[in-house]
Each structure stands twice: as structure tokens, then as C-alpha cells.
């Protein structure tokens, strides 16, 4: 993949493409008055349920999206994404994104404000229908509530270097990542660094480092005999993090290969992420037996496409968490470790339609091993933006 193509692929915008030190801002007169509207239909049948999952057993509506976007003028771009999900007899309507973004700032600088997907990690800032598997890895479902979106502001800069370098900072409300009742109004701060380049014409890579500071993440108060919220293994759906802490560190690496940079006919993607969470409980619990000091999670995955219509992938991941109970003046903690092995095969009717079959082996030391089979469809129509690297 050529350098110019890589930068466009990684830092794609609907109206702003940062290529080295040059920022190109095309203005589409018809888009200014006619927003791009798209729909993503996500449905499934599942014979079990994964831990900390939003998808229940049986027939269900997954992450179905209605999105609208447009240039507001030559200086700003706006986007809105609403999500429908079914849980039993109830259907939830959630506002996942509603933001404005600058188009004309100099030196590769960009600002986004409103509600948006955080840039932490590799997968989080991507819409879930672009994933190669039915659900996000157990690491994301445990530490980020599957995908972490919030209200706030972000600033990014792309440096004018041959090596792709993007640095970003965010300030967010942190309500979905809070473990206290009296939370700070600005509770989460993140910093991210992305590096990328080509190994050759056929292969390219990206490496990322992320840090999330959660002012309201440390568990500090527990009611006597109450079960803390750290890890919900009762299979109730949740959009918040299953366990929180003061500091979350992340590292990710992605390598993509396609003959001569042409991804249409065949390609291979290998990816991995590691996360470390510390500051999990207040210091007054540190003397209690088995009190967690830090927790870790990771996943590795490989997806191979051997034709425009067929692909297959394997993913393995683990995530540490805990359960806890108050007993008088002391806390009793139970360490948990979820392990998941996923195998999937997908048929693409076109670029806009996918039918996927996935098998997941779920293992947790506090329960018996589960085998979960999912049959899913993801269909899109209307405007459909380019996928991230």
C-alpha cells in the first residue's frame, strides 16, 4: 500500500484527508444541503450468551444504526448516529454519536466536540458493524463496556513526517466509567499516539499507545453484604464498563497484507491489544485478602479473506476481573478470569451485506464452560463511509 493511500485509509474523513503536512478540504455543494443518510441492520440468532455481553440468547436485534452526516460549511462537519438494540421484549434507542468536527484548521490539527467514540485503543473508535466478529473482545466488554462513547471534546494532530504520526487528547464526562455516586463532571481524560507505515507495497502496519485517566474509577464505598458491580456474570446486558480503575493503559498492533496493496480479492489482517488497569479499589481495602492491585486483558486475532465473498478468522482473549462482598469492616474479593476462543466464517453478498457464523468457547473459573453459536447478518444501505485501517 502506497504512503498516500495508507494515510487516506487510516485518517479518513468524509471531507478532510490529512496527507503528510498537506490538508485537502474538498467542498461538495450538494452535500451541504443534502445530508448523507445510512442504515445498518444487525440481526442474529444465538444459542447462549457471552459474559458481559449486550447480545442475549435467542433471536435478537443487534447493533442496528441510523446515521446522518454532512459538511455544515467549509469549516465544520457534523454527524449523528442512533442505535437500536433489542433485549427480550424491550427495544432500546440510544444516541451513540452527535458531534461537530473542524475541517479547516492548519498544520493537520483537528477538533471534535459533542458525543463520540473515544480514540482509546484500536477498535473503540470504529463502528461495531465493521468488526470481523459478532462482538468485541472480552477485554473491551470488561474494561470499556464493549465500546466507550461519551460527551466531551477531542483534539488531534497529524505530524508532517514520512512516518504516519497522530497524537490526540480527549476530555470526557466519564459517566459510563464511574464507580462513585458523586462523580466529577469531567471524569475521563485520554491521550493516544498512533504510528504507521508500509513494510512493502503489499503490507502495512500500525502501532498505538493509549492512556485513560478515570477520576471516578476507583471503587471506594461498598454496602455491607452487597455484591459490587465489578463484574456482572448474571448475563444482564450492560453498556457500562464491568470493572473500572483510576488508570487504564493500552497498546495495540495491526499488520495488514494484500497482494500489491489490492484488498478486494484477498488479504490477511493480524491484530493484538493489551490493556492494564490499576487503581481498582481504594487504598483502605489494600490490606484485605485478595484485594486486586491491577487487572489485565488482551486479545489476538487473525482474519483471512481468500475471495471477495469469503473470509474466516480466529480470535483468543482473556480478561481479569473480580467479585467482592463486604463483611463488617473487611472486604472479601474473588478473582475472576474470562477466557474466550472465537472462530468465525463470513459470506459477503457484496460490500454492503454480510452473513456470519461464529462459535465461541467461554471459560471462567467460577462457572462451567459454555459453547455459544451465533448466526448473524449485517446489511447496510444508504451512505456508507470508508472503514478505518
What do you see in this structure?
InterPro entries: Porin_dom_sf. By secondary structure, the chain is mostly beta strands. It has one domain: Beta Barrel (Porin), CATH 2.40.160.10. The protein has helices spanning 3-10, 29-33, 138-143, and strands spanning 17-19, 22-24, 36-46, 58-61, 64-71, 76-87, 90-102, 109-117, 149-158, 164-172, 188-198, 203-214, 247-257, 267-278, 294-305, 310-327, 330-350, 353-364, 370-382. Strands 3-5-6-7-8-9-10-11-12-13-14-15-16-17-18-19 form a 16-stranded antiparallel beta barrel. The protein has a two-stranded antiparallel sheet with strand order 1-2. Strand 15 and strand 16 form a beta hairpin. The longest helix has 8 residues, at 3-10.
Brief digest:
This protein has helices at residues 3-10, 29-33, 138-143, and strands at 17-19, 22-24, 36-46, 58-61, 64-71, 76-87, 90-102, 109-117, 149-158, 164-172, 188-198, 203-214, 247-257, 267-278, 294-305, 310-327, 330-350, 353-364, 370-382.
Keywords:
single chain; 389 residues; mainly beta; Porin; 16-stranded antiparallel beta barrel; disordered N terminus; Porin_dom_sf
Regarding CATH, which class?
Mainly Beta
Assigned CATH architecture: Beta Barrel
* Terminal Cα span: 12 Å
User: What structural class do helix, strand and pairing data support?
Assistant: mainly beta
- Largest sheet, if any? 16 strands, antiparallel, barrel
Strand content: over 45%
Count of strand segments: 19
Mean pLDDT: 84
Query: What would you call the quaternary organization?
Result: single chain
Instruction: Say what the CATH topology is.
Output: Porin
Please give the count of helices.
3
Order of helices and strands: HEEHEEEEEEHEEEEEEEEEEE
What would the principal axes of the Cα set say about the shape? Answer: globular
Share of helical residues: under 10%
| Poorly predicted runs of 5 or more residues | 2-29, 223-237
Q: Supply the CATH superfamily name.
A: Porin
Organism: Vibrio comitans NBRC 102076
InterPro entries: Porin_dom_sf
Protein name: Porin
Amino acid at each position: 500500500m502506497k504512503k498516500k493511500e495508507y494515510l487516506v485509509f487510516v485518517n479518513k474523513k468524509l471531507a478532510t484527508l490529512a496527507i503528510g503536512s498537506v490538508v485537502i478540504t474538498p467542498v461538495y455543494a450538494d452535500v451541504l444541503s443534502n445530508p448523507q443518510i445510512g442504515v445498518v441492520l444487525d440481526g442474529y440468532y444465538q444459542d447462549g450468551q457471552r459474559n458481559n455481553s449486550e447480545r442475549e440468547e435467542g433471536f435478537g436485534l443487534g447493533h442496528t444504526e441510523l446515521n446522518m452526516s454532512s459538511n455544515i460549511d467549509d469549516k465544520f462537519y457534523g454527524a449523528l448516529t442512533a442505535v437500536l438494540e433489542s433485549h427480550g421484549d424491550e427495544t432500546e434507542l440510544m444516541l451513540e454519536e452527535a458531534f461537530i468536527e473542524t475541517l479547516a484548521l492548519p498544520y493537520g490539527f483537528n477538533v471534535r466536540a459533542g458525543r463520540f467514540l473515544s480514540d482509546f485503543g484500536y477498535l473503540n473508535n470504529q463502528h461495531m458493524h465493521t468488526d470481523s466478529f459478532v462482538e468485541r473482545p472480552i477485554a473491551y466488554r470488561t474494561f470499556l463496556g464493549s465500546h466507550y462513547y461519551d460527551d466531551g471534546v477531542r483534539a488531534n494532530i497529524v505530524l508532517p513526517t514520512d512516518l504516519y504520526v497522530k497524537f490526540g487528547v480527549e476530555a470526557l464526562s466519564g459517566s459510563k466509567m464511574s464507580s462513585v455516586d458523586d462523580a466529577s463532571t469531567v471524569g475521563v481524560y485520554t491521550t493516544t499516539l498512533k504510528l504507521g507505515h508500509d513494510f512493502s507495497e503489499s503490507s502495512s502496519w500500525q502501532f498505538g499507545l493509549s492512556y485513560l485517566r478515570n477520576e471516578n474509577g476507583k471503587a471506594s464505598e461498598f454496602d455491607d453484604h452487597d455484591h459490587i458491580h465489578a463484574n456482572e456474570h448474571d448475563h444482564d446486558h450492560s453498556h457500562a464498563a464491568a470493572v473500572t480503575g483510576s488508570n487504564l493503559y493500552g497498546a495495540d498492533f495491526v499488520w495488514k497484507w494484500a497482494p500489491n496493496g489490492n484488498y478486494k480479492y484477498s488479504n490477511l489482517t493480524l491484530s493484538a491489544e493489551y490493556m492494564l488497569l490499576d487503581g481498582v479499589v481504594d487504598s483502605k481495602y489494600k490490606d484485605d485478602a485478595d484485594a486486586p492491585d491491577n487487572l489485565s486483558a488482551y486479545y489476538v486475532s487473525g482474519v483471512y479473506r481468500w475471495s471477495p465473498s469469503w473470509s474466516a478468522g480466529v480470535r483468543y482473549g482473556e480478561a481479569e476481573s473480580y467479585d467482592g462482598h463486604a463483611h463488617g469492616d473487611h472486604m472479601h474479593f474473588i478473582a475472576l478470569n474470562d477466557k474466550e476462543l472465537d472462530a468465525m466464517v463470513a459470506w459477503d453478498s457484496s460490500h454492503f451485506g454480510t452473513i456470519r457464523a461464529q462459535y465461541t468457547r467461554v471459560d471462567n473459573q467460577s462457572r462451567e464452560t459454555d459453547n455459544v453459536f451465533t448466526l448473524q447478518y449485517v446489511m447496510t444501505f444508504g451512505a456508507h463511509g470508508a472503514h478505518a485501517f
